[in-house]
Design brief:
The complex is a heterotrimer. By secondary structure, chain A is α/β, with parallel strands linked by helices. In chain A, about 40% of the residues lie in helices and about 25% in strands. Chain A has ten helices and ten strands. Chain B has one domain. Classes of the chains: A alpha/beta, B mainly alpha, C mainly alpha. Chains B and C meet through helix 4, helix 10 and helix 12 of B and helix 4, helix 9 and helix 11 of C.
């Protein structure tokens, strides 16, 4: 089976400093993949390259059998490759429900024309989308804050909001950038369960960058470990984390 | 006295059109337009030149609006390739270039001597002093229409998306939407409204010269918008009224304070505008929504 | 256009460009560290030039003394507005500083016209005749002005690259958080930076005043050319600002035979648009300027 998302031999340097050095990884359809590494290991840069915020110096990135190198982020998102951000980027002055609705794929309501003509068509589209947005809002347990401005949410709620907003775009694969950072343990469990459910029932593949090893180990099927811009190990999570060089690189000094 | 109030009202309503346009651009979409006066000037000169050439007013006004909107297209397209700070710089430069062109191209605009004898609105109806009152009424209607469209627009899916662009453009791209198309459209819409305001202005003042279109005018509009509250539809009305009280008040103040020349009063006005811009940004940050970087 | 005409335009353009580079450097320094286009740059130039005139009016005949007075005034006004306005706006979106900068520009210009008036002023300079090399004319004054601009730039580059405070400025421009983590006390560095910015504006204002006349619109009219020079060179790159200034100066002089002298601002603006269209990060800029 060919991979849904694959990076092959990706290099990226900043001012002569190698941030990504021959990085390759692959995510199968419906896969749950994790990437761990210390600060500065290159995880976030890798995400930026995969989602299109940065261009790699060399290497290939493909998604759903299409070469996506050089493709701007919005086109990658339209292909079904979504991402969340380490520091949530909610639309602060819009309500939670509006945040969801903005993200929906639509045919008509976003054209300037629709402001002036075809209100009935917009309304029908809107009714359908509100229903779908409310479905995800309930799924993510955000019903109580649905009409509040997103800027007033807690950190954990903003992470859920970003995930939900992504779901509205009907993605095939979501890149999650530290979904558990700054989130309380109860919510960590909650978010993990949601991810599992989305993966199992909707077939969405996930790639997750995390520091929170325990949660990640229990969640993903395949784990990559990065250190100083390279992938130093990958495989089944428990096995990978037991490898000596992983222990040395990733947890050196901590444990 | 009534005639005076009507005149002040007309100018206030012209500023209100400008403020509504800027509020759509900056308040709702986050576009920093520092060249409002350029589109105002283009509207004014376009309409004036057409009516002086014998056109009737209504089509001239429509062409003025369209011309201002269309000129916004290349400017928006170029500068919006980059971050919004560029739009600020480019529009500011554009407004100075437009003024320069008006000054230099005498064959078209009569340069610094200006264009006199622009027909008044409703002049041909022969209703005498009621013409001004009728102008006021038409301006009220135009403003109401503009506000109605704005209210509808900002609550539509389209309006939701432009506000999302204002709040976080990177996130908008991450959900697969193209901010540029909407930014250019909004920039054109607001500029078209400024063009319409210019057409009204030309046919109310009946005389145009390049020194009526200094960058100062742009920042009058900015202050009106900030006072009224960015991203609030009702704000434009409040802001333009307060601005008019200030502008007219400074004119009266000169009559009361002896020994102040008009030139000095112009300096004082400029100083107060500068001070207002400084103090509002420091002490009333909610007037400036801004986008997270 | 004959070769001689061409040479004259080339020389004039280079000199103009070296002078434009001074405010362009001021803009690029602020852009690099405080991340907003400082629209008050032009009016800092104007106020400083008037300060130089004022020093001469007080009886100092030496143009050097007048220049020092202008630099002191430029540094002072720049630091005062930093302390009052731009420091309060740190950490807020750049648009706040940008709007405030327009306010600062209007405020300082209006104070000037309120107390000094709108009359044009000139520096007392000994009248000198231009050297003539078979039709190629060179004014000694222009040569001095260009030399001073070059010396100022050399001093600035020495400051940025050879002194601890200059290195700290560059560190803050590179990565403010990292600089703070490394223990750089940004308050002191920023104060020095704004003083340097003011001094650059002052020098620019003086030099333009010496070359032509001093009027309340002097700096404001140079703002767009200075912006164009900065963007042409690449935002945040001091070397780029100088190169951009010189290129812009030459381009606008060479355009004079075709579009007339009054359209210099328009030429600068057209060049600005062209750069945005073809190479948004400028000649020496990093790719970060473009999204």
């Amino acid at each position: 089976m060919s991979a849904l998302l694959a990076a092959t031999g990706v290099h990226k340097s900043f001012d002569g400093f190698r941030v990504l050095d021959n990085v390759s990884f692959a995510v199968p359809e419906r896969g749950l993949t994790g990437i761990v590494g210390t600060n500065g290991a290159g995880k976030s840069t890798l995400f930026a390259v995969v989602s299109g915020q940065l261009d790699a110096d060399s290497g290939r990135v493909s998604f759903a059998d299409a070469d996506i190198v050089g493709m701007p982020p919005l086109r990658r998102a339209r292909l079904g490759l979504g991402r969340t951000f380490q520091v949530p980027r909610e639309f602060a002055h819009l309500t939670v429900r509006e945040n969801f609705l903005v993200a929906a794929r639509r045919e008509y309501g976003e054209t300037l024309r629709s402001v002036f003509i075809g209100w009935g068509r917009v309304r029908r589209e809107e009714t359908r989308l509100v229903e779908r947005a409310d479905g995800w809002i309930d799924f993510l347990n955000l019903r109580a804050v649905a009409d509040k401005p997103a800027g007033t949410l807690s950190g954990g709620q903003k992470k859920l909001l970003e995930l939900g907003r992504m779901l509205m775009t009907e993605p095939r694969c979501i890149l999650l950038d530290e979904p558990f950072a700054g989130v309380n343990p109860v919510l960590v469990e909650e978010i993990s369960n949601r991810i599992r459910e989305l993966n199992a029932t909707h077939g969405i593949a996930f790639v997750i960058i995390e520091h929170h090893l325990e949660a990640l180990k229990a969640l993903v099927q395949h784990l990559y470990v990065m250190d100083q811009g390279r992938v130093i190990a990958d495989g089944e999570p428990a096995a990978v984390l037991a490898e000596p060089r992983v222990l040395e690189a990733y947890m050196g000094g901590v444990i | 006295m009534t005639a005076y109030l009507v005149a002040v009202g007309i100018v206030a309503l012209i500023y209100m059109l400008l403020t509504i346009g800027l509020n759509l651009q900056y308040g709702y979409t986050g576009l920093i337009n520092f060249g409002v006066v350029a589109f105002f000037a283009i509207g004014a000169y376009t309409a004036a030149l057409l009516t002086l050439a014998g056109w009737s007013l209504a089509p001239a006004f429509v062409v003025a609006m369209v011309a201002a909107g269309l000129l916004a297209y290349p400017i928006g397209l170029l500068s919006l390739r980059l971050s919004d700070d560029y739009l600020a710089v480019v529009t500011l430069g554009f407004s100075e270039v437009v003024r320069l062109v008006i000054q230099q191209e005498r064959w078209l605009t009569n340069g610094v001597q200006g264009l006199p004898g622009i027909p008044r609105i409703f002049q041909t109806l022969g209703i005498g002093e009621y013409a001004e009152l009728a102008t006021l009424a038409v301006l009220v209607l135009c403003n109401l229409a503009a506000i109605a469209v704005m209210l509808h627009l900002v609550r539509s899916p389209y309006g939701r998306l432009i506000q999302a662009i204002r709040d976080d453009e990177v996130a908008v791209e991450a959900i697969g939407k193209d901010p540029r198309r909407l930014k250019v459209q909004v920039f054109m819409l607001g500029s078209g409204l400024a063009g319409l305001a210019g057409a009204f202005y030309a046919h109310f003042i009946t005389y145009l010269s390049p020194d009526q279109f200094l960058p100062l005018v742009t920042f009058y509009v900015w202050i009106a918008m900030i006072i009224g509250g960015t991203g609030r539809t009702s704000g434009a009305a409040v802001g333009s009224l307060i601005l008019m009280v200030f502008l007219e008040g400074s004119r009266f103040a000169r009559d009361w304070i002896p020994g102040v020349s008009e030139v000095q009063m112009a300096s004082v006005r400029l100083a107060l505008v500068g001070l207002a811009l400084i103090l509002f940004t420091i002490y009333r940050p909610q007037g400036m929504m801004g986008r997270r970087q | 256009m004959t070769l001689v005409d061409f040479c004259n335009l080339l020389i004039n353009g280079t000199i103009e460009g070296l002078l434009i580079a001074l405010p362009a450097l001021a803009l690029t320094l602020v852009m690099g560290v405080a991340r907003f286009p400082n629209a008050a740059t032009g009016d800092y130039m104007t106020v400083s030039a008037y300060a130089g005139i004022g020093v001469q009016a007080l009886g100092a005949t030496s143009i050097v003394v007048a220049g020092l007075g202008a630099i002191a005034a430029g540094a002072a006004i720049s630091v005062v507005f930093y302390l009052w306005v731009f420091r309060a706006l740190r950490g807020r979106p750049p648009v706040a500083s940008l709007v405030a900068a327009i306010g600062v520009a209007f405020f300082s210009r209006s104070m000037l016209t309120l107390f000094v008036g709108h009359d044009q002023q000139t520096f007392n300079m000994p009248l000198v005749r231009a050297w003539n090399f078979g039709g190629v004319r060179l004014l000694p004054t222009d040569l001095y002005v260009a030399a001073i601009a070059l010396i100022a730039m050399a001093l600035l580059f020495a400051l940025l690259h050879l002194t601890p405070i200059g290195r700290q400025m560059r560190a803050i421009a590179d990565n403010p958080d990292l600089a703070r983590a490394c223990g750089i006390r940004s308050g002191r560095v920023l104060l020095a930076l704004w003083a340097v910015v003011g001094a650059l504006c002052a020098l620019g204002g003086m030099m333009f005043g010496i070359k032509a006349v001093v009027s309340p619109e002097l700096g404001w009219e140079l703002l767009i050319p200075a912006f164009a020079a900065m963007i042409l060179g690449g935002i945040g790159s001091p070397l780029g600002a100088v190169a951009g200034g010189v290129l812009l100066g030459i381009a606008s002089e060479l355009s004079v035979p075709f579009v007339g002298p009054s359209y210099k601002i328009a030429v600068a603006f057209a060049l600005l648009l062209l750069v945005l269209l073809l190479r948004p990060r400028g000649l020496f800029g990093k790719a970060i300027a473009a999204r």
